[in-house]
Amino acid sequence: MTRPIGNPPPTEPPAVPPRGSRLRKAVAFGLAAGLAATGIALSTGLTAGAAAPAGLPAATQLYKDPDSQVARWVAANPGDSRRPVIARRIASQPQAIWFSNYSPTTVTGDVRAITTAAAAAGQVPVLAVYEIPNRDCGGASAGGAPDLASYDAWVRDFAAGLGSGQSIIILEPDSIALTTCLTAQQQADRFASLSRAGSAIHAAAPNAKVYLDGGHSAWNSASEQANRLRSAGILTSADGLFTNVSNFNTTSNEVNFAKNVLAALGNPANLHAVIDTSRNGNGPAGGGEWCDPSGRAIGTYPTTDTGDQAIDAFLWVKPPGEADGCAGAAGTFLPDIAYALASAAPSDPVPPATTPPTTPPTTTPPTTPPPTTEPPTTPPPTGAACSVSYKIASAWTGGFTADVTVRNTGAAAVNGWSLAWSFPGDQKITSAWNAKATQSGAAVTATDLGYNGTIAAGGSTAFGFQGTASGSGSPTAFTLNGASCAVS
């Protein structure tokens, strides 16, 4: 399983419109050892499977990967001045998890690790599949499965890890819009394989939503893209199309383009579109620059509440802050880029549509954040081995986000941590990043995620969360692994 990273400049003649994805050549990252690669048994041949009913509920909660590069950076840099903005506006948001490393022996377990974690959190993962042979048509991201027969088998193994829960599959960016390196027969073979892939995913995971490559609004015409999608089996093997992956075109242009493609397909009731809005807040850069252009901004925060029946979701398929290959090594998380994209956004994310109360709360939180902490009612124990900083990062009527930093003030490292506190009011945590948060009544426990489980003597770790509240107030007492902490 891999993360997406960037491509160098295109090799096509200048007359060819910009490619859609611009960020492939992925590098692998590890999962915990011992994951079983067992799953749903499929036949050796890819068989047809009916697509799930069209559309995604507006209240769908998308999965936030606690092991993403941005989450790791936020956890490791609690004192960085860029951290609060990056944490609130990027790390707090769900982003696609990419599968682009050909690993047939582990892919089922890798997928299951994600879908199991998402199901436990009550969220829906977005998985980007990038394994088709000749992906990127021999460019910097050349690779993938060695041949289509191997790809078909790999997809079956991928599908076996999806399970019965909901998932969103971004199936092979560039694979339909970019075929300049393929002969007519090779293109036909690829499209047939994509159709089999969609059917295999639906057969193994009936609640999966499969979206095929729609390119973007500055590439192929809507009619041409529709013809290609039809050849790739969109009418029988998919739930719709995706556009703008890793690109910067405005959401309005992409919505119009996607609708034109759907119209060219005959507006079938079972097909919708999703759009990558991860970096399109300021639209495309001048001159069509695509490789880490300056002056860009994150776009619409990920949501399935699009207000448009033809558009299932706005997604962050390209993780903001990961380089395209010009500002730094392709795929590397660069805080300067992330900070520039995040700080250019007009506002912080708002809570999900289902979070605010349907009637005004009896009390209204202040328009400015409450004090970051209140002094302890009693002095902390002498020689306390920890201190905690609890800060309200943003607040609105009915909700808030908070940043928590835990410092080990003892003489020995903490290996595996659990921080507990009680809310003074009716606050409820709805999601967390860089920690697993559980709540029973007012009592909350936040635990490490493995990779951030060790806090060196004198070191610290940080996490954040989003919650609901009809009043204000901050916790005043914390315990780390059962020992009381000072509040700073």
Q: Tell me about the biggest sheet? A: 9 strands, mixed
Q: What name goes with the CATH superfamily of the largest domain? A: 1, 4-beta cellobiohydrolase
State the helicity in percent bands. 10-25%
Which architecture of the largest domain does the CATH hierarchy give at level 2?
Answer: Alpha-Beta Barrel
CATH uppermost class of the largest domain? Alpha Beta
Beta-strand level of the residues, as a percent range?
15-25%
SS content category = alpha/beta
Distance between the termini: 40 Å
Number of helices: 9
Whole-number mean pLDDT: 82
**Which term fits the overall shape?**
elongated
Overall tally of structural domains: 2
Radius of gyration: 23 Å
Tell me the strand order in the biggest sheet: 14-18-11-10-20-19-13-16-15
H and E order: EEHHEHEHEHEHHEHEEHEEEEEEEEEEE
Number of strands: 20
Uncertain segments: 1-53, 353-383
Named CATH topology of the largest domain: TIM Barrel
Domain CBM2: 379-488
Protein name: Glucanase
InterPro entries: Beta_cellobiohydrolase, Beta_cellobiohydrolase_sf, CBD2, CBM2/CBM3_carb-bd_dom_sf, CBM2_carb-bd_dom_sf, Glyco_hydro_6_CS
Active site: 174 (proton donor)
Task: Describe this entry's structure for a reader.
The structure is a single chain. The protein is an alpha/beta fold. The chain has two domains: 2-343, Alpha-Beta Barrel (TIM Barrel); 386-487, Immunoglobulin-like, CATH 2.60.40. It has nine helices and 20 strands. The strands form four sheets. Strands 14-18-11-10-20-19-13-16-15 form a nine-stranded mixed β-sheet, covered by helices on one side. The chain has a seven-stranded parallel β-sheet with strand order 3-4-5-6-7-8-9. The two termini are 40 Å apart. This is Glucanase.
